[in-house]
Amino acid sequence: MKIHESWKHLSLLAATTLVVAACSSNNDPVKPPPVAMNQPPTVAVVADQTSDQDTVVGPIEFAVADKETDSATLRVVAAADSASLFPADGVVVSGAGAARAITLTPLEATTGAATIALLVTDVDGATTTRSFKVTVNAKNASVRDVAMSTFAKGETEDQTTVNGFTFAQDADETTFQALMPPEEP
Questions:
Q1: pLDDT of 37-83, one tens digit each?
Q2: 85 and 159 part of one domain
Q3: By CB neighbour count within 10 A (0-12 exposed, 13-18 middle, 19+ buried), where does 114 fall?
Q4: Given CA atoms 66, 68, 73, 74 in this order, what sign does their dihedral have?
Q5: Rounded Cα distance, 94 and 100, in Å
Q6: Cα–Cα distance between 168 and 165 in angstroms, integer?
Q7: How many whole angstroms separate alpha carbon 99 and alpha carbon 59?
Q8: Does residue 117 share a domain with residue 170?
Q9: DSSP letters of 131-185?
Q10: Could you tell me if residue 5 is inside a domain?
Q11: pTM for the full model?
Q12: Each residue of 107-128: pLDDT tens digit?
């Protein structure tokens, strides 16, 4: 089988082109252009927070951004390191685009401190984590507030007995009177 002369010339030309393309003017191998690296997203600093017990914290606003990804496609999740203070359903992220917010609802009558972690992920899987601390302090409740929230019967004059003490509410007022049990003869 005979190879046509023009085919020989074409294959020699192709080989020469590959050798020339692989060398620069100073005979160094040509380096391919650098591949762009996916940069992780950014999340703004969130200041540490302090709140009284039984009080919702937030919404606390923060910003997210990414060089390669539209902010609207960034995924933001959050978690507390203390589920006994902030259960999973008490940590809620909201917002869209660059403007996001987090709202924290502590369990009733709990105090303590927790670290809240915000995890931001772009569409290519790069992540950034930002943390801040939330302290929930005990709140001194007045006897009146406790009585109003615990014993109030609305617009009635019904009495409530607790541990041997009777509480009477004046239906026209928001006051209570503790009635002492009658003395025994």
A1: 889 999 999 999 999 999 999 999 999 999 998 999 999 999 999 99
A2: no
A3: buried
A4: negative
A5: 6
A6: 10
A7: 12
A8: no
A9: EEEEEEE--PPPHHHHHHHHH--SSS--EEEETTEEEEE-TTSS-EEEEPPPPP-
A10: no
A11: 0.59
A12: 998 999 999 999 999 999 999 9
